[in-house]
Amino acid sequence: MALQAASLLPCSVSLYKEGKYGRFKETSFLGIPVSDHHKASQFHPLSLRTKEFRNGVIRAQTTTTSPSITRAAPEEKKTLRKGNVVITGASSGLGLATAKVLATQGDWHVIMACRDFLKAERAAKRSGMPKENYSVIHLDLASLDSVRQFVDNFRRSGWPLDVLVCNAAVYLPTAKEPTFTAEGFELSVGTNHLGHFLLSRLLLDDLKKSDYPSKRLIIVGSITGNTNTLAGNIPPKANLGDLRGLAGGLNGVNSSPMIDGGKFDGAKAYKDSKVCNMLTMQEFHRRFHEETGITFASLYPGCIAETGLFRNHIPLFRTLFPPFQKYITKGYVSEEEAGKRLAEVVSDPTLTKSGVYWSWNKNSKSFENQLSKEASDEEKARKLWEISEKLVGLA
Ligand code: LMG
Ligand code: NDP
Ligand code: PMR
Fold first, then answer.
1. Which ranges of 132-184 does DSSP label H, i.e. alpha helix?
2. Residue of 59, 115, 117, 185 to mutate, ligand 2, most atoms within 8 A of C-beta
3. What ipTM goes with this model?
4. pTM for this one?
5. Ligand 2 center to residue 120 CA distance, Å?
6. The dihedral of CA 292, 104, 47, 90: what is its sign?
7. C-beta 111 within 6 A of ligand 2
8. If you count Cβ atoms within 10 Å of the first and of the last residue's Cβ in the chain, which end, N or C, has fewer?
9. Least confident piece of the model among 10-19, 62-71, 87-96, 135-144
10. Which reaction does it catalyse (predicted)?
């Protein structure tokens, strides 16, 4: 298979290896292997090139050679092929822990959709994921251009899409002023909701085309967006109001940066974005489940009190929060355990019910949980869908 990575990467080293599954090429950049390492017979390799150097971070962009997909011969169909799952924000926390479980199981190829390419590669390597079972494709959810570019790159890879996991998020609890995405949307809702909204709308076509027995779109929600719980009642509480700020474009110039039109509050913006995630999952279910058979689901994986999500919180919070959750609320869950839970929602053959918000009890047994009144408001979900379509350029 003709590959061009060596010519694209000025300081890359490319080697061909004889593997169990045939000849494949490994590319490294500054000594770090990049994603050209899947089974040659099963996946079409991506070639990679560095794109830009921004904020001291090297961003890598994937491009592809012309795809030539090796389809299974009819008689091979009896054995289930490897599933292909895209996980956004798989470079740390829950996303990485889930990627690790799935890639290590052996029957999944995980596409890590990450904004920091090298961080993702390093994280995957450090966590011991078998290199033929994962790939990294650059995705910055805070830019709709990047979302579209990701979809293009993914399609050119030739891999089918069997499961999409919308996991990435930012939480800016200490920000005094709002910050914005490339298109000028408040950053938390812009990234956590609007970026994922465009991504999942575009990739729905790819999910539809997959011949995998159980196709799923999973969007990570949270207890803190649900005001029917104690955790959801810690101020500031989620509240989308009549969506007037969202309808105005969340730009903080001629509209409020908050969905409900109020004053900026980073913690509230995050919780609002989680309500949007849970409403979006249900709206997908209502619009597309019957027609496509795709399972749409959300979940609260437990309080994973030590992830990077809290990187912007004050140091005192980061010190006290884990013991508080472990010993007082008992809501604490390790990254490893949370990763197993999300991996279950991706791959467990019994969790095929659509329109469901999964939670786990103390014995780590999954159950269908109840969403708050606002997070299950059909009218709001429809309105959110329609405004979001306009904002991301789909309507
Ligand atoms: C604000 O910070 C930010 O300012 C704002 O920007 C936004 O981010 C907002 O909601 C987000 O948060 C709030 C600030 C004060 O939070 C903190 O910085 C720390 C809060 C969490 C830590 C609580 C400390 C409790 C001490 C725990 C010690 C654990 C050690 C256990 C060791 C055991 C060893 C055997 O947040 C506040 O809300 C003020 C909190 C005041 C402390 C109250 C004490 C907590 C007691 C609560 C008991 C409730 C029990 C509930 C149990 C429920 C069981 C079902
Ligand atoms: P982390 O911060 O560890 O993970 C978030 C991931 O999102 C990181 O990989 C981060 O990338 C990525 N990300 C952030 N912004 C972007 C962007 N613009 N484009 C692409 N990727 C981006 O937090 P968690 O693992 O805790 O969070 C994962 C999910 O779990 C979130 O949806 C969160 O809301 C949810 N959740 C978390 C809970 C918890 O207690 N931690 C509880 C309930 C839900 P990078 O590595 O480059 O920073
Ligand atoms: Mg909360 C009953 C328990 C419970 C649970 C399961 C959580 C989860 N929290 C609980 C209770 C409380 N919290 C109580 C009683 C307090 C007051 C001390 C409290 C405070 C608190 C703060 C300040 N909790 C927080 C914060 C945050 O900044 C976190 C947040 O809101 O992020 C948006 C948070 C969280 N509590 C949780 C969970 C899961 C979070 C964080 C992550 C998330 O929803 O994604």
1. 144-157
2. 115
3. 0.85
4. 0.84
5. 13
6. positive
7. no
8. C
9. 10-19
10. chlorophyllide a + NADP(+) = protochlorophyllide a + NADPH + H(+)
